[in-house]
Specification:
- The structure is a single chain.
- This protein is of the alpha/beta class and 437 residues long.
- The chain contains 20 helices and 7 strands.
Length: 437
């Protein structure tokens, strides 16, 4: 029987709610629910139900009630950060022992770890009933289990798509999306964006084939801190958002990212390598991102980055199958799964596209001459969308020119634009808040 991680979390945090005497189990669970949500109703459950959750773990109904009550991760962080240093040390040692972690959680990272653990428990609980309903895969299907890691529900609470179009210069499949953060009002709110990134950090930074039990949250954050300090990325949030948009919008699934293989002293040319299956075709997609306060500069910089990829510097065509490092695949997925992926990429007359494609995220500073203050909320939102539509048109014109200049018309392009209040300063602040320094 596996570790009941919810029970361990409840026991670890019980001392924070104790005053003069021990707290009953049901009250300890209630305290966590109240601090993890904006407005949890204590009468959602009877005492026996709270006890059942403690002994059996979160279920789908509890996860639904928690989300309906409004997840408040910052509130939960604040609750844990109110603990004394000695309390945090004690909680960390308890979690180390009971969860069989590989390293003790630093006191300053404890709140972050607990928030991520609770978030993962909620996501697991939401999937419990769904997994039971799924048919048992056949042997052939089992080799091909390769599912999205990005939550659809969370994504739609963060972004609104303003428009989507195509680029005339590209002769293969392509699409360029313009998104805006909800609500579409300046200055933009980053609260929900932080939650989305937090819930996907582990899946981005850690191999799909690795059990998440002992790498959740803390080790993913440690890995990304080391990656950020390596000097390789200059826009870590951009890399994360490229992954989130590619998986969610285009069902392009991560094979591996530059961040997750840094630990074995390896690096790759692009920021990430993805596999997209669509309409009987399979494409290899190379990820690239850029965050810049000037949209034109952001596009120019991401184009320069793509131009330095190995396949674009060769005098002869580099096949997509030659770009993937098979030894990395085996390390990330294991022998059977990596062989299945390699087989999927085997060129056939109609199956695998020979030339690599590109998945691009561009974050820029929102600039407009429109007055967004002296109007109603709905008028401000509509003006904001109009301005972003103009940004989309500018991006299309610019990309059409550079794609032709570099002779990339035969590749597919999947491009995502997102304005920030201040692209450079805000994104660094967001990542500092999420993973520390």
């Amino acid at each position: 029987m596996g570790i009941n991680r919810f029970q361990v979390l409840v026991d670890a945090l019980k001392p924070l709610s104790e005053i003069d005497e021990s707290v009953p189990i049901q009250d300890a669970v209630l305290v966590i629910f109240e601090n993890y949500t904006k407005n949890w109703n204590a009468h959602n459950y009877q005492e026996s139900n709270y006890k059942r959750l403690y002994y059996k773990g979160l279920n789908r109904s509890a996860a639904h009630k928690l989300e309906k009550s409004g997840i408040a991760k910052d509130k939960f962080k604040d609750y844990i950060n109110e603990a004394s240093y000695s309390q945090k040390e004690s909680i960390s040692k308890y979690l180390l022992e009971k969860l069989q972690l590989k390293e003790e959680i630093p006191a300053e990272s404890l709140a972050y770890y607990c928030v991520n653990l609770m978030s993962e428990l909620v996501e697991e609980a939401k999937r419990k009933k769904q997994l039971r309903k799924q048919k048992i895969p056949t042997k052939s299907e089992d080799k091909d289990i390769f599912t999205k890691t990005v939550s659809d529900e969370t994504f739609t609470t963060v972004f609104r798509q303003v428009n989507a179009s195509e680029m005339d210069a590209v002769k293969n499949r392509n699409i360029i999306h313009a998104f805006v953060l909800k609500p579409e009002l300046l200055p933009f709110s980053y609260t929900n964006l932080k939650d989305l990134v937090t819930s996907n950090i582990t899946s981005y930074a850690i191999a799909r084939g690795v059990s998440k039990t002992d790498v959740i949250g803390l080790q993913a954050a440690n890995l990304l801190r080391k990656y950020a300090k390596s000097g390789i990325p200059n826009n870590l949030l951009g890399e994360l958002l490229a992954y989130i948009f590619l998986e969610h919008e285009d069902n392009a699934l991560k094979l591996y990212t530059r961040a997750e293989i840094l630990k074995v002293k390896r690096t790759i040319n692009s920021e990430g390598i993805y596999l997209k299956r669509d309409q009987g075709k399979t494409q290899l997609i190379l990820g690239a991102s850029q965050l810049n306060n000037n949209l034109e500069d952001a596009i120019n910089n991401v184009v320069k980055k793509i131009a330095t990829f190995d396949n674009n510097r060769s005098n002869e065509m580099v096949l997509a199958t030659d770009i993937v490092d098979r030894s990395i695949l085996r390390t990330q997925f294991g022998e059977d799964k990596s062989n299945a992926i390699i087989k999927l990429m085997a060129p056939t007359e109609t199956g695998f596209e020979d030339i690599a494609s590109y998945g691009i995220f561009i974050g820029y500073k929102f600039r407009t001459q429109l007055d967004l203050d002296d109007c109603t909320q709905e008028e401000a939102k509509e003006k904001c969308r109009q301005a972003i539509n103009c940004d989309l048109e500018q991006a299309i014109r610019q990309l059409n020119i550079v794609i032709q200049q570099h002779h990339w018309q035969k590749s597919s392009f999947y491009v995502y634009l997102l304005p920030f209040t201040n692209a450079e300063e805000d994104t660094h602040a967001i990542m500092k808040d999420l993973i520390g320094e």
